Amino acid sequence: MPASAGIFIGPASLDPALKEAPMFQRFAALLLLATSLMGSALAQQQPQTDLQRTQLSVGLYKIDAQVAQTPRQREIGLMFRKEMPQAEGMIFVFDQPATQCFWMRNTLLPLTAAFVADDGRIVNLVDMQPMTENSHCSEEPVRFVLEMNQGWFAKKNIKKGARLGGELFAASKR
Q1: Which has more confidence, 117 or 34?
Q2: Hey, what's the torsion of the CAs at 131, 134, 135, 139, to 10 degrees?
Q3: Residues 40 and 87 grouped into a single domain
Q4: pLDDT tens across 136-157, in order?
Q5: How are beta strands 122-128 and 88-98 bridged, if at all?
Q6: What is the distance, to the nearest Å, from the Cα of residue 153 to the centroid of all Cα atoms in its chain?
Q7: Cα–Cα distance for residue pair 92/108, rounded to 1 Å
């Protein structure tokens, strides 16, 4: 059959109702779909700043830490943040101790990761550069990783072996 005989392979041929829908309705539906997809993509590029918070301490210093405890919260982490107050960070909480590895995809701030044991002991500290996919791992299995602005630990002379305090670590001892 020649193409002019009315054979059309596409959405209208699959759904008879679409053949009768005015062109502007199909266009509006397509526009609505495109807008919703763009909206969800844009939402994914927003920093998460509304997570639950916990207070941590190390020596004389206090830390206001956002808590990333679900897989999605941990996946996003500090991505897309353009700034972070000096005494603020994000603590990643995992269900079981394991070798934890982090990278900096879509993370705009230089950070230092403290890999932390259940008792609050800093196992190791690693400086991480923004927008890289280099893997930075704990030296032993841990359940917690605290990310702070790069240099925060060094400026306060906080090193491997120092202990963090806070409810998260008290709960781990139970």
Answers
A1: 117
A2: -110
A3: no
A4: 999 999 999 999 999 999 999 9
A5: unpaired
A6: 22
A7: 18
Q: The domain containing residue 100 runs over which residues?
A: 53-173
At 52-81, the pLDDT tens digits run 999 999 999 999 999 999 999 999 999 999
Residues 149/154/160/165 CA torsion (nearest 10 deg):
-60
The CATH number for 70's domain is 2.60.120.1140
Q: Within its chain, how far is the Cα of 24 from the centroid?
A: 40
Looking at per-residue confidence, does 25 or 163 come out higher?
Answer: 163
d(CA 105, CA 144): 20
Asked if residue 89 and residue 38 are part of one domain, the reply reads no
The verdict on 21 and 98 lying in the same domain is no
Please provide the DSSP assignment of 18-81 as one string: HHHS-HHHHHHHHHHHHHHHHHHHHHHTS----S-EEEEEETTEEEEEEEE-SHHHHHHTTTT-
Quote the number of domains for the chain: 2
Residues 148 and 69 in one domain: yes
CB 142 within 8 A of CB 123: yes
